[in-house]
Amino acid sequence: MSIVKINAITVPRDRFDDFERRFATRAGKVSSADGFEAFELLRPNDDRELCLVVTRWRSEEDFQAWVASPDFAAGHSQHRTEGPVGTASEIWSFDVLEREEA
Prior knowledge:
By secondary structure, the chain is α+β, with helices and mostly antiparallel strands. Helices cover 29% and strands 30% of the residues.
């Protein structure tokens, strides 16, 4: 069964637009990776400042191959050139035990 990787990024509310813009400019890079299954970018609709980048993968090996790829590096280049938008981040990892879709 699949695995889910969540990058939980603390983003000050006044930087939400920058955060979304950076993801929009790199849209589609991850979807061509071998083993990629799904992507979601979540912004809180309450008073939290924790944005979530949720990806689902066929295997841990597929995720690690993506992280080591040139496309991953290119997608994160804005972080190096413009500095980070977030003030902290943490990667969470889960095995998918069950899934149901409409």
